[in-house]
Fold:
Amino acid sequence: MAWWTTALVSALVVFLIALFFRDPEREMPATEDEWVSPADGVVTLREDTLQEIPGVGSCRKLSIFLSVFDVHLNRMPYGGTVVSSTHTPGKFLDARDPQSGIANENRLWVFTCHRGRFGIRQIAGLIARRIVDWKKVGGTVDKGDRLGLIRFGSRTDLYIPENAEFTVNVGDRVWGCYSVVARWKA
Structure:
């Protein structure tokens, strides 16, 4: 009987890991003036007040919490050129904690596009221990491209320029590369 229990637990663990690392193909419905979500998850913070982010400049912030059941692949919300990619070691607080964006291990990406700079911060969480990056500084990226992966739970912050505005609210469920989360102002 013990081998059945071990086999069942092992099969469940393998299934959950496969579910976690899945990479579904997504069709992008967004127009040129729209930004898509960089991650699957739930919007936990929307800051419309402008703040200064080093390298990005004056911007608005959107935080998306990724549960262990969400796809953890991050995608490009808009096209541009990679200006910088900075890894910062840190703690592993629960990604829903407001301090986790600064205190936790994270990678801040800065991009430039035809209308300004924007940023994405990949934040490790309580279970997450590694951020895998797939793009290089100086390279160009298109909207919807795969950016990287946060292994085992986390948060993704999107920083958009002041000439763009968010279209989602706290509590909204979003899907990477599919959900429109912002638009350029006219």
Observations:
- The domain at 29-184 is CATH 2.70.70.10 (Glucose Permease (Domain IIA)).
- The chain has one domain: 29-184.
